Amino acid sequence: MYTERLKNAHVLVIGGSTETGPFICKSFAEHGSHVGFTYYSHKEEAEQLERFTIEVSRCSTKKTSRLPRREKPLRTLV
User: What are the tens digits of pLDDT across the range 31-55?
Assistant: First the structure.
């Protein structure tokens, strides 16, 4: 049921190269989604993930360039 809904979907994963990000990216790619993800400092992992998602989904995959570090942390709204 959900597999058909994910095929050709466009997905953006923030922090795709660390912790649970690669699992999320790979899962969407295996279901045929177009995956985009960001990374900050794990360039090698991001490149490996990009190759994997392209091979598995046969869809376009886009990783963003390295994200800039913020001088001040974002404020949390509660």
Answer: 888 888 888 778 888 888 888 888 8
* Structure tokens that stand for 26 in this block: 């790979």
77 assigned to some structural domain: no
- Any domain includes 50: yes
pTM: 0.68
The 3-state DSSP class for residue 36 equals: strand
35: CATH: 3.40.50.1370
